[in-house]
Amino acid sequence: MKNQIKTQATATGIKIKTSMVTLIGLCLAAASGAYAQVSSINSAVITPRVIDDIPGAMGTYLNKYPGFISLSEAGVSQASGGFADRDVWFFSNDGASAYQFQNNDYFSASFSVTLTDKADSPRKEAGFLFSNNGYSPYGDLQFIVDSDGHEVVQFGGISFWAFAPTYVPPYFTGTTIRLGMKYFQAKDGNNAFQFSANGIFSPVFEFDPGFGIGNGNTLAGYFQIVNDPADPNNAGTAVFSGINIISVRRFQQSNDSQ
Question: Whose CA, among 89, 107, 124, 244, lies 20 to 30 Å from 66?
């Protein structure tokens, strides 16, 4: 099944905390943060063509973490079908493999992303990708901008929040936007996510009591470009700059949440 992105609302609400049901319960680790290995993250690894539907395209990838990472594809055009090509870079603490997050690896991550292309349609998109190792029935958590819908939107995992056009302007290719996401333990003891776009914060999205991200998930940035069988020059680039990730204590909710 191809990983075509569809942005459908799964929750609504303004100026509220949102709690959504997850499928797998995990006992909370000690409140002190037993794993606390986020601070060991010191690099990134690029995995090109996680989706490789147009193998004849030309990819160019540059890793200058934490300064910037560039993912680029050209000639994404195939007459005989194929949905898209997707390139991914992962946070790492050894420069060779993706860091495996644990249930109480509380973190705050951010980067600026600039998406450019030859034409806005068909879709090009870029942003955060947090893998789903069973903590939610709604698939991987994604927080993206895109070329054709001009969205700034978080969806998947336990939450949905559309920043544009209500809280930030619609996204247009060639512009740079700062995206952030935070996983922390809220004051009521529940694990939670919160997201930001250009310093504007989403509500806090809480897991049900006793739930969290689980063990073994990965955090990444990605670029995806949809096939255009009619345009052999179909191309695009995503540049991620000012990449940052830190370990956070509990109770790190922003006071600026919607």
Answer: 124
